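Model the whole thing, not chain by chain.
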Amino acid sequence: MSTPRIGVLALQGAVAEHARALQSAGAEVSTVRRPSELEGLDGLIVPGGESTTMARLAAPVHLMEAIRERHAEGMAMFGTCAGMILMADQILDAEALTGFERIGGLDVVVRRNGYGSQLDSFTGALPVSGLPGADPTPLQAVFIRAPIIESVGSEVEVIASWQDRPVAVRQGRVLAASFHPELTPDHRLHQHFVQIAGARLSS
Amino acid sequence: MTTEATTPATEATGATAVNTGLAQMLKGGVIMDVVTPEQARIAEEAGAVAVMALERVPADIRATGGVARMSDPDLISGIIETVSIPVMAKARIGHFVEAQILEHLKVDYIDESEVLSPADYVHHIDKSKFKVPFVCGATNLGEALRRITEGASMIRSKGEAGTGDVSEAMKHIRTINAEIARLTSLAEDELYLAAKDLQAPYALVKQVARDGRLPVVLFVAGGVATPADAALMMQMGADGVFVGSGIFKAGNPAERAAAIVKATTYFDDPAVVTEASKGLGEAMVGINVADLPAPHRLAERGW
């Protein structure tokens, strides 16, 4: 099987951290700031950062629409924090994103900054049930001004929860987390994503 | 990769991880000085990753003189209510009570800033006592490492605020880059003397020598006034830029702000930076740093 090619959306945010995690998970990594850079990608990570900033930078080059098209053609997607907001089908408190194109495709309802301000940011050890393999080690998760997943659709599988709320989910070729797996050395979610993105290479 | 000079992926957990982590989320972005909720709204609309609340922008502090302090708590709360992006606010160097007030107001980051009048000419705030993260200015590597030792989660090079003259920002980022590069070239047993010369803890010096970068995010500030200035700082290896007087002391602040955001993301693409530079009208008038008498240079505050 050839190596999956994964892009990281590099308009703004924690790009280098995701790139390093992907490299250690065995992917070939590139950055994406233009629609042409989506060519040939098996997967795309939309990182944490400010969703308002990314949506505004994407608009003039129609990057969100291009990502949606490539996803429809088979490209997998992984959104963390702001990236998950941009993939959510419904956003509460979305005033600052009004009028800007988003990616969509994940049947969840999220609330921006739902966990509060920076003083409410926290870390926690998450039990993970939905990852392949039988590693029972909890996942260290860093939540930074994180969005809350208020509800999930029937097609959405919950991979991890924190205080009875889903914080990592999967719907087919879309993976999303409200925390930052790129900031910790445990790369199981990235490995999972590389497998999802690479599945079509072996089929 | 577009952002090579970044923090290691293996960070400590807890307060350190969430506070240095927030700075990592701001990378590749522009943080804009604002003095009113209306300006904060314009900044968010233009694509700022965060806003910095202060009483007067540095150019006005220069023009009107007097003691510059933390801004009015009502104004800061008004800005927090107005925007959805992180809100930073400035406290005077060493003024730990202003910092306590800002933490109580739930700002997302405190800037212990030389732009305001220092409250203590000897000691900086003990930032490790706070849960809220701090960003601090630095003109060189030793200063940056002393601030990190005191608990800063993010560093910005100082430049010379309120001038619109990017030369000091250039000098400081070049200095920091050169001092980091020198550390990476030293033998391990030479790092003890390097720590002594930098007046910084040996453990941090050793870490910088090993990683070839600061252990926290490094933004550039002070004198950035145009899209080209922002792109210049990004090509010098900055993780992002602060723009102070450059936006709201210029004509068309909304357009200029959006153009600087664009030039920061596409910093290595002259076609985009050229396009972003067009039709912005007058930039801030500016002052040449060389014309500023030494006692009026803000970068010399902080130790």
